[in-house]
Write a structure and sequence with these properties.
- The structure is a single chain.
- By secondary structure, the protein is an alpha+beta fold.
- The protein has a single domain, classed as Oxidoreductase, molybdopterin-binding domain (Sulfite Oxidase, Chain A, domain 2, Alpha-Beta Complex), CATH 3.90.420.
- The chain is built from eight helices and 13 strands.
- It has helices spanning 2-24, 44-47, 62-66, 91-95, 124-131, 169-172, 225-229, 272-275; strands spanning 30-31, 76-81, 87-90, 101-108, 113-123, 139-144, 164-168, 178-183, 186-187, 197-199, 212-218, 253-256, 263-264.
- Strands 1, 4, 5, 8, 9, 10, 12 and 13 form an eight-stranded mixed beta sheet that branches. A five-stranded mixed beta sheet has the order 3-2-11-6-7.
Length: 288
C-alpha cells in the first residue's frame, strides 16, 4: 500500500514538473498578417513592470512586486454553459490542439496611455469552434482565478471579486481576438496575466481579463466587473473611441509608454477595417 501511494505521489509530482517545464519553454509562434508592424515595440521591461492587475494591487508597480508567489501551473480552465463540449481542461490540453501565433497589437488603456506588445497565443475563434457552442449562445463570459492567498489585492474590496468580463459572440470570434499565453517569445509573466489572458486590441485594456479559469457560453449579456463598479464610466463594449471621453480622462489623445509627445488616438485603436462592421447602426456614445 505504501509503495503504491509513493508511486502515485511520484507520478503526480512528475506530471506537475512536466507541466511546469512545458510552460516555461520558449514559445514558437507562426507569424500572423494581422500583426501591427509599422510601430516600434514597447520595451519588455515596461510591458512587465507597468501594469493594471488589481488582484495584486492598484499601483502600476504592484503586480510585478506582489506576484512572485502566484503559481500559474498546474492550471485548469472550466468550460460551461451553452456548448456541446463543456468540461475542465488542463492548460496543456486547452492549448495543444491549436496553432500558436505571433500577434503584435496596440494596447490602449482607458487611462489614456498605450503600448505596442508582441503577444503569442491562439485564436479564440478556433478555441470556441472546438467547444461547439449552441445557436442560443450569444455571449462568452470569462472569470479570473480567485486566490486571495496568492493575490493580495483580492483581500480588499477594491472591486467585486473575482474579476469577470464578457464579449458578444461575434466579437469573440473576430479574427483579431486572441487568447494570449506569452509575450516577447516567453510565457506570460505573472504580472501580465499568466498563464492565459484575453486580448481584444480594439477595446480598452480592462476588457483583457487575465489568469482565466472559466469560459461560459451564455444567452444574455453577462455582467462585467468595471461596469458593476462604475456603470456611468465603464460600458460593456469599451471600444476605443477618441470621440467619447471618460469622465476622468480625455480619449482624443494618448501617451505611448516610452515616448515624450502625446499621439492622436485612432478609432477602434486603429483596427476599424477589421471590426467597425460589427457595430454598424449602433450609437457608440450610448453603447460605450
Amino acid at each position: 500500500m505504501a509503495a503504491a501511494a509513493a508511486s502515485g505521489f511520484a507520478g503526480g509530482l512528475s506530471a506537475v514538473l512536466a507541466s511546469n517545464i512545458a510552460y516555461a519553454a520558449p514559445l514558437q509562434g507562426t507569424k500572423s498578417p494581422l500583426s501591427t508592424t509599422d510601430e516600434p515595440l514597447t520595451p519588455r521591461r515596461d510591458v512587465t513592470s507597468y501594469n493594471n492587475f488589481y488582484e495584486f494591487g492598484t499601483d502600476k508597480e504592484d503586480p510585478k512586486q506582489n506576484s512572485a508567489g502566484f503559481h500559474p501551473q498546474p492550471w485548469t480552465v472550466r468550460v460551461e454553459g451553452l456548448c456541446k463540449k463543456p468540461g475542465d481542461y488542463h492548460f496543456e490540453d486547452l492549448i495543444k490542439p491549436h496553432k500558436v501565433v505571433d500577434r503584435t497589437y496596440r494596447l490602449r488603456c482607458v487611462e489614456a496611455w498605450s503600448m505596442v506588445i508582441p503577444w503569442q497565443g491562439i485564436s479564440l475563434a478556433e478555441m470556441i469552434k472546438r467547444f461547439d457552442p449552441q445557436p442560443s449562445a450569444k455571449f462568452v463570459a470569462f472569470t479570473t482565478v480567485m486566490r486571495p492567498d496568492e493575490m493580495p489585492g483580492q483581500r480588499r474590496p477594491v472591486l467585486r471579486w473575482p474579476y469577470i468580463e464578457g464579449l458578444r459572440m461575434d466579437e469573440a470570434t473576430n479574427d483579431l481576438t486572441l487568447m494570449a499565453t506569452g509575450l516577447y517569445g516567453k510565457p506570460l509573466p505573472n504580472q501580465d496575466g499568466a498563464p492565459i489572458r484575453l486580448i481584444v486590441p480594439w477595446k480598452y485594456g480592462f476588457k483583457g481579463i487575465k489568469s482565466i479559469v472559466k469560459i461560459a457560453f451564455v444567452d444574455r449579456q453577462p455582467e462585467t466587473t468595471w461596469n458593476i463598479a462604475a456603470p456611468d464610466e465603464y460600458g460593456f463594449y469599451a471600444n476605443v473611441n477618441p470621440e467619447v471621453d471618460h469622465p476622468r480622462w480625455s480619449q482624443g489623445t494618448e501617451r505611448r509608454i516610452g515616448e515624450f509627445r502625446r499621439r492622436r488616438t485612432l478609432m477602434f485603436n486603429g483596427y476599424a477595417d477589421k471590426v467597425a462592421s460589427m457595430y454598424a447602426g449602433m450609437d457608440l456614445r450610448k453603447n460605450y
